[in-house]
Amino acid sequence: MDLTSPENCMCFNLRQATRAITQAYDAALKPIGITGPQFTMLSVMASSKPLTMLELAAALKMDRTTLTRNLKPLLREGLVEVQTGTDQRQRMIKLTRKGITRRKRAEKNWRSVQDKIVGLFGKKESTALLQALTEFGKTANSPISG
Prior knowledge:
The protein is mostly helical. It has helices at residues 10-29, 36-46, 53-60, 64-76, 97-121, 123-138; strands at residues 51-52, 80-84, 91-95. It is built from six helices and three strands.
């Protein structure tokens, strides 16, 4: 494989794969009324105490502006709520009972897609891919030099 060829561009191919995988999760979660990225957000919140906006953004590896935009539909639906922290300026994001219930309902649909994707690649290859993406993600905030 010629890695200097434009059709083998890492960015293009990762984005194309991400779109396809996101569409699969979104289709499976649509009957529950959430998207794949929303399921991830709810899952992160379900596995922790209330988080500040900064903590949640860091856990999701997204900037605060993107987080705010992605939280709006969850707030509108009553799946999450914003509370004042110990400091009046501090905003804590918390999963509501409705959010916990919706996430639990969505888990079966999510698991079905997850199992299909892992089955497509194989468990060993899926594990290796996740490890490689995790390692690469750790360098995402530093410039890539060539």
